[in-house]
Design a protein that fits this description.
Strand order of the largest sheet: 1-2
Strand content: under 5%
Number of strands: 2
Distance between the termini: 67 Å
Largest sheet: 2 strands, antiparallel
CATH topology: ABC transporter involved in vitamin B12 uptake, BtuC
Number of helices: 13
Number of domains: 1
Order of helices and strands: HHHHEHEHHHHHHHH
């Protein structure tokens, strides 16, 4: 294979994987706190629209990213209110959140269809970017790619080394015990939901600001569901989310470049490939018994604060 083609493919894999990294980390922090949020898809598409609208308004990248995070956090706070305070079913509420986000973005985003966002410049790391083949592939990316790696590192430190992170994990493992020790289960879960919503929103914004700098109705195309599967695939560990995202991102790029690589498979099969791999990965994990043991003990269980 030509080195230039290999470099381009690796570079494209990282770009395609970055939305999954942000969304997967957003789902992970919520599930570590014991909250199952199936509305990641809706959070991503709302963040995608908010970031795109901010970019078209002339705001710099950092403002567009912040706006996308705020949009995701705002929508996630509605989910938090319904689930934590009104005791709505989290599965039904998450599904409703996805449908609401897709519908809202389609309605509000119709005015932006056909417009292109300003191009985001790459940050080229000196010396490292000059390494043959891998230099351009790994060390010449937009700022959000590097931010996704930093967020994963910070989340790993937060969950494993900080006192607050350990409390959050305790709430996710056994909310009754955490409450008896005096910790605010609802407060911690609310912050986890809002933080996860912000990360999912940023993941959606990456689609409209970098990967495909335009807005199209339903452009998340199931990435929110893949992000949820990634959390299980990664056994609720941040760095494994990155590895899983790059794996699924690689499958997506293969299906896009299949014909150029000489893969003689029907285009329909190549389009289904990312989702087939997702299902197979979950089946393999379940058959080995690792997914269930790694899941937080109170995941998806409603907590009612005693008075």
């Amino acid at each position: 294979m030509d080195h230039g083609l290999l470099t381009s493919i690796i570079h494209a894999i990282i770009v395609a994987s970055t939305p999954l990294v942000f969304a997967g980390l957003g789902a992970l922090i919520q599930e570590r706190a014991g909250v199952l949020n199936l509305g990641i898809e809706g959070l991503m598409i709302v963040g995608a629209l908010a970031g795109f609208a901010s970019a078209l308004a002339g705001y710099p990248l950092v403002v567009s990213v912040v706006m996308s995070g705020l949009a995701g956090a705002a929508l996630a706070s509605i989910f938090a209110l319904l689930v934590l305070r009104l005791y709505a079913n989290p599965v039904a509420t998450g599904l409703a959140l996805t449908l609401f986000g897709l519908g809202l973005s389609a309605l509000a985003g119709s005015q932006y269809v056909g417009q292109a966002a300003p191009q985001v410049s790459e940050w080229i790391i000196p010396v490292l970017s000059d390494i043959p083949v891998i230099g351009r592939a790994f060390f010449s990316h937009d700022p959000l790619v590097y931010l996704s790696i930093i967020v994963a590192g910070v989340m790993w430190w937060f969950l494993t080394k900080s006192r607050t992170g350990l409390i959050l994990r305790a709430v996710g493992e056994n909310h009754s015990s955490a409450h008896s020790l005096g910790f605010s289960v609802l407060g911690i879960r609310f912050l986890a939901i809002v933080s996860g919503g912000a990360l999912a929103g940023i993941g959606g914004a990456y689609l409209t600001l970098v990967q495909t700098p335009l807005f199209v109705e339903g452009m998340t195309a199931g990435r929110g569901w893949i992000a949820l599967a990634l959390v299980v695939f990664a056994s609720w560990r941040p760095f494994r989310v990155i590895a899983g995202a790059y794996l699924f991102g690689g499958v997506s790029i293969v299906q896009l470049h299949g014909q150029a690589l000489g893969i003689s498979i029907a285009a329909q099969w190549l389009s289904m490939l990312p989702y087939i791999v997702t299902i197979l990965a979950l089946v393999i994990i379940a058959s080995r018994g690792r997914g269930g043991h790694a899941a937080p003990g109170s995941l998806g269980i409603t907590f009612k604060e005693s008075k």
